[in-house]
Amino acid sequence: MRKFMALSVLLGALGAAQAATAADCTPKVSADHLVTPGKLQMSTNPTLPPQQFIDEKGELRGLNVELGKAIAKKLCLDMEFVRMDMPSMLPALKAKRFDGIDTGMFWTEERSKLMFMIPYAQQAVSIYTSPDSKLEIAKFEDLAGHTVGIETGTYQEKQAKLLNEKMVAAGMKPIEFRSFKTASETTAALKAGQVEAGINIDETARVLEEKGLAKIKVQGLNGTDITIDFIDRTLADAVVKALVELNADGTYDKLFDTFKMTRLKDRNFAIRGPGPAQ
């Protein structure tokens, strides 16, 4: 109860501050660098607690949600989230349906050429089963010959399939991957016995285990940085400055403590990679 109250107080304070934003200051990003003047519009897939999820009241919560609101406040913009599955996000961003992606996308060199990616946290990948599963898994290779559910269009899907290719080349049985649009669909398939194991980020697997929906067998695989992403360089530069300010005033630490996620190692907030041609 104490933890819930502390979370409510923090989120309430951030929400109250956010509500006052537009009326109290002048936007730090001009209209020609935004899809809609005065608003910061970001896509998110709210199926990955504690990153982003829908709470018992039907409201959008999570580290990325609250961090996005805090960034918007620093920029004197109104925050708006666009709910969307992961595979559709990059095409929609390039079509300028919204300003950025705030869903914890893993940094890769290939992606850094398509958008301006700003690392802000770290994540790794877990393998989990249903709580009563007798399947013994001590390493990724133990999934050989088994059926595994995974969220489509994600970093973890790409890394898992690359590892599978290496396993097959070494003479091991292939993994049978079944891809789903969301982590919730993967969990439902696990519960229904349609897959023997699931793969997702460490924090989401931990929440599933806490809810009694999964048992983590391996965690900490392929750890790397996750990012917030933009198509406009000026807006991305402004967000970098906002993150630096949030780190300096303690908001960054408070949010990461609240949602128990892993901070960026060096806290060197900056665009990483070349970004798209402007």
Automatic annotation (TrEMBL):
For the keyword Hydrolase, the answer is no
**Name of the protein in question:** ABC transporter substrate-binding protein
Keyword Signal in the entry? The reply is yes
Q: Which residues form a coiled coil?
A: none
Where in the numbering of this chain does the Solute-binding protein family 3/N-terminal domain appear? 39-272
Q: Which residues form the signal peptide?
A: 1-22
**Keywords of the record:** Signal
A Pfam family annotated for this chain is: SBP_bac_3
